[in-house]
Write a structure and sequence with these properties.
Helix content: over 70%
Strand content: under 5%
Largest sheet: 2 strands, antiparallel
């Protein structure tokens, strides 16, 4: 069985999408219908607001897009440093810590911050996640956007049911898990907003915390002898 990085396994990807779904749900519901990660949605809404000459709303979308771009560049600078370029797991843990720290700031100080500042912080988190975690199960991966996953689920279901393709069945199961994580993150945040307010961003914080512990366990395990036995079950949790 070929080696697969912990950050490319299905369960890890589901944690990332849960965080992404929760972040976008919170920014959209609590901060002027602006997405923190789904910049395609922001650009569509930007065009609509310009067409309707709603200039204040236009600024909201531009702020998120600009913050997302800045967050991407920041993580790219980290990725290209001599120290982190070849230390993938260490770099990923640092990026997760960076995201978690920002979420803690939002959860504890949000009531004292203007809405645009919260949008900027959450867009930085979303950008970091997308820039650092871009592969899943040895294929390209975008934890912030589910359109491609809906297409993959549909195609895989067709090939599995019609042709009995076992690889398609595995792909279907994995992608459903990732998509479910995204939806669950949004559901939990939507349920908690009326009671918890900004503290509901602890939902994506907890998802990233679990991802962090998973990477930490992997890093510790590298110091012990590693053996692979048995056959691949098809789904890597």
């Amino acid at each position: 069985m070929a080696y697969q990085a912990t950050s490319e396994k299905t369960a890890f990807g589901a944690l990332l999408t849960m965080a992404a779904g929760g972040i976008d749900a919170y920014s959209y519901l609590a901060h002027g219908s602006v997405f923190s990660g789904l910049q395609t949605g922001n650009l569509i809404l930007l065009g609509i607001s310009i067409g309707r000459m709603q200039w204040m709303q236009t600024v909201r979308y531009l702020v998120s897009v600009a913050a997302f771009a800045a967050g991407t560049i920041a993580v790219r600078l980290i990725q290209k440093t001599d120290f982190f370029e070849k230390r993938t797991v260490v770099r990923q843990r640092c990026v997760l810590l960076y995201e978690m720290a920002i979420l803690l700031v939002v959860a504890t100080a949000n009531d004292d911050m203007p809405s645009f500042a919260t949008t900027i912080l959450l867009s930085l988190v979303a950008a970091a996640e997308l820039q650092e975690f871009r592969r899943l199960n040895n294929a390209p991966f975008t934890p912030l956007m589910m359109t491609g996953n809906v297409r993959t689920i549909s195609e895989s279901l067709h090939d599995w049911v019609r042709y009995g393709n076992l690889a398609a069945r595995t792909r279907f199961a994995r992608t459903c898990m990732v998509l479910a994580g995204f939806v669950c993150g949004a559901i939990l945040v939507a349920l908690l907003i009326p009671r918890a307010g900004s503290a509901c961003v602890l939902v994506p914080f907890l998802a990233l915390s679990i991802a962090q512990m998973t990477l930490l366990g992997k890093e510790r395990g590298r110091s012990r002898p590693h053996m692979e036995t048995g056959k691949d079950s098809g789904i890597h949790a």
